[in-house]
Structure formats: structure tokens, C-alpha cells
Amino acid sequence: MGCCSGRCTLAFICGMQLVSVLERQVIDFLGYQWAPLLTNFLHIVVVILGLFGTVQFRPRYVTGYAAWLVVWMTWNVFIICFYLEVGDLSRDSDLVLTFNLSMHRSWWMENGPGCRVTPISPPPSWAPEDHRYISISGCLMDFQFIEVAHSSLQILLALMGFIYACYVVKLISEEEDSFDFIGGFDSYGYQGPQKTSHLQLQPMYM
Fold this sequence. Notes:
This protein is about 60% helix and about 5% strand. It has six helices and two strands; from the N terminus they run H-H-H-H-H-E-E-H. The longest helix has about 35 residues, at about 145-180.
């Protein structure tokens, strides 16, 4: 019963992770954030494998899923530090998240709740010709805090997934140790039915 409950909870957590990371994948794609796109894709693949291992009683898959969650939590901590500009990190750097392929920022920068985008013309002389120069105002929440909230949610789900993954691996291992698949029925002393004869021999007198 405990194994079923733990597996069901872990499967639910995997489903929540898939929904949340798919939403994040779309947002990062719209914002041309190439590094998060690649990391999100790896996370989707590993979560699917972890879900498969949970349903099919494959402890190796669940163990690999748990190990990846440590990397995933580390990545999201870095994202939080990046957007909060901890230390020498700067969210205006093009190299970190876009591989220096574009000047785009987070999609939430222009599309956050309440944000009003106003094109500025003529653009300044230093602005690239293939980019527009805009002014953003009226945002109810700055884009960096929205990104921090997304990463915090991923850390919370990953922490819950890691705990339940370790729990499920422990339960599956205990069940495998408690039952011997090769000689599982030997302890019962099973014996097949024996034929008995009701024919009685009578002496014969000559």
C-alpha cells in the first residue's frame, strides 16, 4: 500500500513538472532564450523516463531521475541569481542565456502583467537597424521577479520529486528483496497430488 501511494504521488509530481516546464519552454522559445530551451528539453526527457520508471517498477530510471533533479535545482538556483544579479552576474548579458546569438531578453519583459510597450522613434544611433527601440512602463511586476517565481516553483517541485523518488526506490528495493523470484514457492513445501489405490488384494486358495 505504501509503495502504491508513493508511486502515485511521484507520478503526480512528474505530471506537474511536465506541465510547468512545457509552459516555461514556450515562454523561453518566444524570448529566444537558447540555453534554457536546451536545459528544459533535457528536463522533459528525464522526467518522462522517471515517470516510466515509476509506473513500470524500474528503480534505475527513478534513480537517474533523482540524480538529474539535483542538477536541475542547481540550474534554477543559477537562474535566480542571474536575474537578481547576484555577485558579478548581469541579466543584461547576451552570452549567458542566448549564446550571444540575439539581443532578446525574457519574454516577460514586454509581456508581463500590465506592461505597456511604446516604440521610440527615431531610435538612437547606436541601436541596430534590425531591432526596434521601445519603452516599457506600467508593469505590475518586473520581469526578473516573474522569472525568479518560475525558477522557485521548479525548485520546489524538484525537491518534492527528489524526496519521493528516493522513497519509491527504497520501497521497490525492499519488495524485490522480500520475494525470491527463482524459488518463491519453495518455502511452502508444495507437493503434487499422489495417486492412491483402493484395490485390495485377496488371497487365492487352490
